[in-house]
Specification:
The chain is an alpha+beta fold. Helix content is 23%, strand content 29%. It binds FE2/S2 (inorganic) cluster.
Length: 355
């Protein structure tokens, strides 16, 4: 892992449309991303439109039980084909009613029989790659992507080693949010906790941020914290007594957040993605064990919502500063900001640009 400090990437990268175009081409159109969960399907013969941007994806489970993913863009004139989740054996585009099977093949195109040049066998939905990890569904717009299991690396083993059995969890709620900042500023804020004592008074009563452990392995950048004594004594915003004695926060490149607090079995997982050079959208799916105490869940969500609001204010202010055009670069501290350095290495490599 990087241990020496270094200049940041140029701050122009946080607002330059040309950089975002490059990121779309070299990162977002060819990366695995969390697309939702198996509970969004309703058995064989169903599908759901993934809310994960910026490439629209539809996940299907065909009548034979095969899980597939397609780019959710109509091959006619580009409309979004699927919306929401449905139990249905075909997907019909709302624009001119082209109808696709759950295997992506075009089944019907009104009035196409009047066009002798039209070849329906070449007009199916574009396939994407799909994979699962426990109840989580992942997709990659690149149909020839390396399998998910290989790209996940040791993340599943690390999560389990820290006490979380993802198969014991049930989906609780999805919380979408938007941030007026470049996606990289939001990610980099996630990758260090030296801002925590100053800005997250609730969080630092739950985790002992002075005892942070950092790891960067493969596509994961991880932070581990023991529970804070205050919360173990029942005096923090959540009671940290439970089967999980530590917190684990993983960023899985490029943007998947995987958050586990100490206490009872819990997880929030979700991606963020750029909606413009200076804005991004995101969501978190919250998961808890069946029968988890409702008050404990409520306390955790109140805390996490407060942390999210505090972070939004921080990164939006950083966006305004980096967009001023008056300072070319900042500084990534060695040690405490090592994971940001690793992320910026990843960026430079994927974009084939010197950082
Ligand atoms: Fe989908 Fe025309 S854009 S049917």
């Amino acid at each position: 892992m990087t241990s020496l400090g270094r200049p940041t990437v140029p701050w122009s990268w946080y607002s330059d449309p040309a950089i975002l175009s490059l990121e779309m081409e070299r990162i977002f159109r060819r990366s695995w991303q969390y697309a939702g969960h198996l509970g969004e399907l309703q058995g064989p013969g169903s599908y759901f439109a993934s809310e994960t941007g910026p490439v629209p994806i539809v996940i299907t489970l065909d009548p034979d039980g095969e899980l597939r993913a397609f780019v959710n863009v109509c091959r006619h004139r580009g409309a979004i084909v699927a919306t929401d989740a449905h139990r249905r054996r075909t997907i019909q585009c709302p624009y001119h009613a082209w109808t696709y099977g759950l295997d992506g093949r075009l089944r019907a195109a009104p009035r196409a029989d009047q066009d002798p040049a039209f070849d329906p066998s070449r007009m199916g939905l574009m396939p994407a790659s799909v994979g699962t990890w426990g109840p989580f569904v992942f997709a990659n717009p690149d149909a020839d992507a390396e399998p998910l299991s290989e790209v996940l690396g040791d993340l599943p083993a690390v999560v389990a080693a820290h006490g979380l059995d993802i198969d014991s969890l049930s989906f609780y709620r999805r919380v979408p949010y938007k941030v007026n900042a470049n996606w990289k500023i939001a990610v980099e804020n996630y990758l260090e906790c030296i801002h925590c004592p100053v800005n997250h008074p609730g969080l630092v009563e739950v985790i002992d941020e002075r005892k942070i452990e950092l790891q960067a392995v493969g596509l994961r950048a991880s932070q581990f914290f023991p529970a804070h004594p205050r919360s173990l004594e029942g005096r923090g915003p959540i009671d940290a007594h439970g089967e999980l004695r530590s917190a684990q926060f993983h960023l899985w490149y490029p943007t998947l957040k995987f958050n586990v607090f100490p206490g009872h079995a819990n997880l929030s997982i979700g991606p963020l993605w750029p909606t413009s050079p200076v804005a991004c959208a995101a969501y978190l799916d919250y998961w808890f064990a069946d029968g988890a105490d409702q008050r404990w869940i409520d306390d955790l969500i109140v805390l996490d919502t407060q942390i999210g609001a505090e972070d939004t204010a921080l990164v939006e202010a950083a966006q305004r500063g980096t967009s001023s055009g008056m300072v070319e670069r900042g500084w990534v501290l060695g040690g405490s900001e090592t994971l940001i350095g690793c992320f910026q290495d990843y960026l430079g490599e994927r974009l084939s640009l010197d950082t």
